[in-house]
Design a protein that fits this description.
Number of domains: 1
Number of helices: 11
CATH superfamily: MFS general substrate transporter like domains
Strand order of the largest sheet: 1-2
Order of helices and strands: EEHHHHHHHHHEEHH
Shape: globular
């Protein structure tokens, strides 16, 4: 398959030593994660809040709330598969991100309404939107750099820090608005965040040029012949390692996503949240993970960059474990 390389003009547009397009994608994804993690921060809390409270929720049991949260989260991750396929085979990453962003704005906007049809419709649209946007915007980040560019790993780290900035701000801002002012105001605020990200992406197109465009069937004759050849022992071993890494990632994210469900309810019901005469919103506890990543991630990125310059670059699997 032919390698998708960015237009040469991309390398003339630099900001802080990286392609300007990186920061377009940085802020797009930051606001997308603001919307996603903001909604996630208050979803289960909204589900279990009593209907008789001033800020009334749906009055579900913990079991019912966690069951819906589990199904919702599972479909969010599963939709990345068809989302990536649609981008690769039909419309390209660039248009997929745009479509995903539009679906997310509509989905979060519908959640601002109080009717049950709006609640379920909003969840479905968010699942579809994340599936279209999330896997493809990350691919576009990699396409901003030429093969072998030493800045590529650092670029992904910057991008990842943007994700966690969005997550941190969402837990604090959307969490407060949802718990204190009103759940549906929180859902609506998450939608405004995604709208900002969509605007950044739309007006930042000149800095993305040919990155993420659909190029049709780019499989060369040599690549097609290579696909029919049997795998060597080294290639088989690499595939085994790849599958092991998949299992590790599944376990990690399965545990990580408990933050929006089980741990969220634990913070609500089992913790003393009084601080200086103020009751801290339960959703604020979800900001801690993102805060640690922002602080530690910067230091780790510098460490990997120094190792790479010395010719001691670690494997991708080892970096994932760290």
């Amino acid at each position: 398959m032919q390698e998708i390389t960015p237009d040469n003009s991309l390398f003339k547009n630099q900001l802080f030593g990286h392609p300007t397009g990186l920061f377009v994608l940085f802020f797009t994804e930051m606001w997308e994660r603001f919307s996603y993690y903001g909604m996630r921060a208050i979803l289960t809390l909204y589900l279990v809040s009593k209907t008789t409270e001033a800020n009334s929720g749906l009055g579900w049991s913990n079991t019912e709330a966690l069951e819906l949260y589990g199904w919702y989260t599972m479909f969010v991750y599963l939709m990345s598969i068809p989302g990536g396929y649609i981008a690769d085979k039909f419309i390209g990453q660039k248009k997929s991100v745009l479509v995903g962003g539009i679906l997310l704005v509509i989905g979060h906007g519908i959640l601002a309404y109080t009717e049950m049809w709006a609640f379920y419709t909003g969840l479905v649209l968010i699942v579809l939107g994340v599936g279209m946007l999330k896997p493809n915007i990350s691919t576009m980040v990699g396409s901003l750099y030429k093969k072998g560019d030493l800045r590529r790993d650092k670029g992904f780290t910057i991008f990842y820090i943007g994700i966690n900035i969005g997550s941190f701000l969402a837990s604090i801002i959307v969490g407060y608005v949802g718990e204190v002012i009103g759940w549906h105001y929180g859902f609506g605020l998450a939608g405004i965040g995604m709208l900002l990200g969509l605007l950044v992406y739309y007006f930042g197109q000149p800095y993305l040029q040919n990155v993420g465009n659909f190029i049709g069937d780019s499989t060369s004759k040599e690549d097609k012949e290579l696909l029919n050849k049997p795998l060597t022992k080294i290639e088989k071993d690499r595939i085994i390692v790849l599958f092991i890494s998949f299992l590790l990632v599944i376990v990690f994210w399965g545990a990580y996503e408990q933050a929006g469900g089980l741990l969220n309810l634990y913070a609500l019901e089992k913790t003393n949240r009084m601080f200086m005469g103020m009751e801290v919103p339960a959703s604020w506890f979800q900001s801690l993970s993102a805060l640690f990543i922002i602080i530690i991630g910067t230091a780790v990125a510098r460490y990997w960059a120094k190792r790479k310059l010395k010719g001691k670059n670690a494997s991708s699997i080892f970096k994932m474990l760290v």
